[in-house]
Amino acid sequence: MKILGITGPTGAGKTTALNVLTSLGACILDADAVYHDLLEQSRALREALTGRFGDICDETGKIDRKKLGGVVFTDPAALADLNGITHRFMEAELDRRLREAEQEGRPAAAIDAFLRQKLKGAPTDRRELKKASDALARRGYHWSDISEGLRRLGADIEE
Q1: Cα(115)–Cα(156) distance, integer angstroms
Q2: Most buried in the list 17, 36, 40, 115, measured by CB within 10 Å?
Q3: Which one, of 96, 99, 92, 114, lies nearest residue 18 by Cα?
Q4: ∠ CA(105), CA(34), CA(133), 5° rounding?
Q5: pLDDT digits (tens, 9 = 90+) for 20-35
Q6: Which H, E and C letters describe 30-48, residue by residue?
Q7: pLDDT tens-digit series, residues 93-104
Q8: CA–CA dist 27, 21 (Å, integer)
Q9: Which CA distances in Å does 105 have to 44, 71, 82, 148?
Q10: What is the residue-wise DSSP string for 67-130?
């Protein structure tokens, strides 16, 4: 199974690329959604965060992102600690979901992350979006538009 990292700024064409990959049977993993799932469901992550940052939970025992933000966004060392803690959990969860996608027989998986550093440690292959661009071309899109969109995504493409 090929693993693609999809990154780029707003308007770069990430959603279009992801839609094409979905239509080709790829599993799409949204890094932000995975992070929010972990905040809601992972007791181990919650314990690691409260162990480091103290009382950052709401009245139901879930992580209060405003409280957490109030701690980490004013202290660079705390932010580095947050990233160190959460990235461990993110990598493990992304790996789990990638294994699941492979067991389902998916031909590819794409990890959607706004910031490339969110993919640090993720097992992405060299970008191979040429196949997706070929699929777009078969659907009537012009190569110049496809290649420009892929370049904005930073994809390695062949002319």
Answers
A1: 18
A2: 17
A3: 114
A4: 55
A5: 888 888 899 988 899 9
A6: EHHHHHHHHHHHCHHHHHH
A7: 988 999 999 999
A8: 8
A9: 30, 42, 34, 31
A10: HHHHHHTT-HHHHHHHHHHHHHHHHHHHHHHHHHHHHTT-SEEEEE-SSGGGGTT--PPSP-TH
